[in-house]
Amino acid sequence: MKDQFGEGSKILWHDRKRWCGMPLSFTRYYLVENEDWLKLYSSIGFLSIRGEEVNLYRVYDISVRATLSNRIFGTGTLILHCSSNSSDEVYLIRIKNPYKVRAMLSELIEQERAKRGNRISEFTY
């Protein structure tokens, strides 16, 4: 799987879309680090696969949505609000431990912005 992301890439986090807390889906999410970038990938499908990627420094807000059934099974949906050309929102649907993942992503986003010298005002329209 590492070949898909390029030489020298490291997968920091991965999960799948879940059903009743079990990873019974063909939707996969990866947080990948390279020496030059940090990206979030999603791969959706089995026979026909659609892939999306977002540079982490382009995320300016993260929301968590958890229904009662999500909370029972320890899952939730993260909504990443981005300043990207391809999409304004990226959904990580029914992932495990959404609050821990949100905290991890928030910290990494701030590190990426600091490394690049970006401020949040550079992403507003």
Total strands: the figure is 7
Task: Report strand %.
Answer: 35-45%
CATH topology: PH-domain like
- Largest sheet: spatial strand order: 1-2-3-4
Sheet with most strands: 4 strands, antiparallel
CATH architecture tag:
Roll
Shape: globular
Quick one: CATH class? Mainly Beta
Percent range of helical residues: 10-25%
Number of helices: 2
Overall mean pLDDT score? 89
Uncertain spans: none
Order of SSEs: EEEEEHEEH
**How widely separated are the two ends?**
37 Å
Structural summary, described in words:
Helix content is 20%, strand content 40%. By secondary structure, the chain is α+β, with helices and mostly antiparallel strands. It has a single domain, classed as PH-domain like, CATH 2.30.29. The strands form two sheets. The protein has a four-stranded antiparallel β-sheet, with no helix packed on it. Strands 5-6-7 form a three-stranded antiparallel β-sheet. It has helices at residues 68-73, 98-116, and strands at 10-16, 27-33, 38-44, 50-55, 59-65, 75-82, 89-96. It is globular. Strand 6 and strand 7 (89-96) form a beta hairpin. The termini are far apart. The relative contact order is 0.17. The protein has two helices and seven strands.
